[in-house]
């Protein structure tokens, strides 16, 4: 069994803004020219749509206006917590209905200070590819979450 990927950061904004930036403003901070299915095909994504509710979808809008499901929100507790089944496609093994699970928890530390913890689990579902997928996501979240998202919360 693989250890979960856990990334914890502190951001210089209140809990509501931290939550809102993560979901509602995802297209503004996610590196669309690096970590998208469109880039796997050679072109940056145009945007990301997020339906912020339980059962809502997170969808990448490709350079050709195609839509790719990234995730389905499984728990939605505004400003405190959300979780999603993370479906980002890639190699063929990803495209057979297998997905990992991502949880993001927002904890108020002070008026303008929030701790945000991202945990990704269920990577074992990728079987022989699991260790490589784990390493890739661990690296990717460092750039996406610990850098790009944190910077977006700082502005």
Automatic annotation (TrEMBL):
Any Pfam family hit: AHSA1
Record SUPFAM superfamilies: Bet v1-like
InterPro entries: ASHA1/2-like_C, START-like_dom_sf
Gene3D superfamilies: 3.30.530.20
Residue stretches making up the Activator of Hsp90 ATPase homologue 1/2-like C-terminal domain: 22-137
Family in the record: Belongs to the AHA1 family.
Protein name per the record: Activator of Hsp90 ATPase homologue 1/2-like C-terminal domain-containing protein
Protein's organism: SAR86 cluster bacterium
């Amino acid at each position: 069994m693989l250890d979960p990927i856990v990334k914890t950061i502190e951001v210089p904004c209140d809990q509501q803004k931290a939550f809102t930036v993560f979901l509602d403003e995802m297209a503004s901070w996610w590196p669309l020219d690096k970590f998208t299915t469109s880039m796997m095909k050679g072109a940056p994504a145009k945007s990301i749509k997020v339906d912020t509710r339980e059962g809502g979808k997170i969808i990448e809008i490709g350079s050709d206006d195609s839509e790719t499901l990234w995730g389905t929100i499984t728990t939605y507790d505004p400003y405190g917590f959300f979780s999603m089944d993370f479906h980002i496609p890639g190699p063929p093994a990803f495209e057979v209905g297998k997905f990992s699970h991502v949880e993001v928890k927002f904890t108020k530390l002070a008026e303008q200070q929030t701790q945000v913890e991202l945990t990704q689990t269920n990577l074992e579902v990728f079987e022989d590819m699991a260790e490589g997928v784990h390493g890739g996501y661990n690296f990717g979240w460092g750039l996406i979450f610990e850098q790009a998202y944190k910077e977006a919360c700082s502005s």
